[in-house]
Amino acid sequence: MSVACPSGTARRHHAPGRGGSIWRGILPALGLSAILLASATAASEDQATGPAAAPFSSGERLFYRVEWDPPWYLFFLPKMEAGELELALSADADYEQKPVWRITFKARSSGTLSRLADLHVDDHFESIADRTTFCTYEVTKRIMEGRRKREIHVKYYHRERRLHVRELDVARVPPRTVKDRQKDGLPVCVRDVFASLYALRMEKLTIGSVRKWTIGDDDVVKEVETRALRLETVQGPSGPIPGLLIDTVALLGGLFKEGGQFRIWLSNDERRLPLKFQVQVKLGKVDGRLVSVGRP
After folding, report:
1. Which residue has the higher pLDDT, 225 or 9?
2. H helix intervals, 87-201
């Protein structure tokens, strides 16, 4: 395989493509931890009481270390560091005369995989969501993955039940429009992947809960089923703690273009921190672990 040995001109030529494919499996992973768990409202139906006080506040920052475990046919390659993720929350007093949450997500390549694939990743996403409902107003993405450079802007019009998405290829001079379209017939409230995660943390989940719902990313909408399976001991930032394992099934098409499985572990306490996520795809397994929490 092209990533098996970084020495050799031909292999170096193919490594960036394979590395980019691996990273395009990694980057949605933390976001999918929000997508698959966006059933916060449905989950609350199993609770005797309503949502507790918010387990987060403006200024919270979550830091993750990501590793790639190669597939079986690359058995001679060890598990290796792939990158770092950061998720941050801040309050904004005025967005079109509405109080909102501003959520930022950053992904950076690092370690052995980045050097092996000869690929630099530096992605930045920002989501603006309603302070109470977490319904998304707009999402901005800046994607820099090697030679691939994109800027994506999604605007939600809740009253009209539509969205508009515009995607630019900024690697070209001048930038080229890749996508510029509108999607109609949306639900009144749509949450992007990251706003959904914070909406979830306002609720409590129980073992055995199964829910079906839809979520949007850019102009794509999928129906996903979530299943809270069991409690497991997970390594947290300060040591082992109980985590609730949640599995997902995409009912129409896979979560990923080439199929695959996604799992996440939430801390079984009042903070409901996303402790760990795992993505199993054709190119191996991606593990992300929460390594530190920045407090306001």
Report:
1. 225
2. 111-117, 193-200
Q: What percent of the chain is predicted at pLDDT more than 70?
A: 76
Give whole-number Cα distances, 52 to 134, 270, 283, 295, in Å.
Answer: 16, 8, 40, 19
How far is residue 164's CA from residue 156's CA, in Å, rounded to a whole number?
A: 7
CA distance 264 to 244: 8
Answer for the pair 143, 123: CB distance below 8 angstroms, yes or no: yes
Q: Output the pLDDT for position 115.
A: 78
Nearest-Å Rg of the Cα atoms of the chain is 19
Burial tier of 30 (Cβ tally within 10 Å: 0-12, 13-18, 19+): buried
Helix locations, 118-233, DSSP H? 193-200
Residue 210: predicted pLDDT: 74
116, 91 contact by CB (below 8 A): no
The pLDDT mean for the chain works out to: 77
In angstroms, the CA 161 to CA 185 distance is 6
The domains of the chain are located at: 9-294
Question: Which residue, 292, 268, 250, is CA-closest to 28?
Answer: 250
